[in-house]
Amino acid sequence: MKKKNVFQRFEEKLERITETGCWIWIGCHYHTGYGQIHMADGVKRAHRVAYEAYVGPIPAGMCVLHRCDFKLCVNPTHLFLGTLKENVADMVAKNRTAKGEQA
Fold first, then answer.
1. What is the sign, positive or negative, of the torsion defined by CA atoms of 81, 86, 92, 93?
2. What is the pLDDT of residues 18-32, one digit of tens each?
3. Which of 42, 46, 54, 87 could form a disulfide with 35 if both were Cys (CB 3.0 to 4.6 A apart)?
């Protein structure tokens, strides 16, 4: 049996939602709500793997942010790169700080 590549593994673990355009990760997830996938070099966040697989490398120190603000979304068109400072600013702007976390 031939080993599946990252694209095949991703296709099996997502559900496309036409109304929002989100690709919802239906595989394992962290207690924080982000999807996870087991890779040869360890467990990775699914949205970061999606970005690397469909868009390109993530430069050192960069975060992968969600335009749709949905932690389980792995649609590469909903993901963008930002610094940690930009990630925190995005979180604050969307009222997702510890005091204002949305359900």
1. negative
2. 999 999 999 999 998
3. 46
Return left, alpha or beta for 61; rule: phi > 0 is left, psi -120 to 50 is alpha, else beta.
Answer: left
Burial label, 3 (beta-carbon count in 10 A; 0-12, 13-18, 19+): exposed
pLDDT tens string 43-77: 999 999 999 989 999 999 999 999 998 999 999 99
Report pTM: 0.84
Give the end-to-end CA distance of the chain in Å, rounded to a whole number: 42
The pair phi, psi for residue 77, each rounded to 5°, is -75, -10
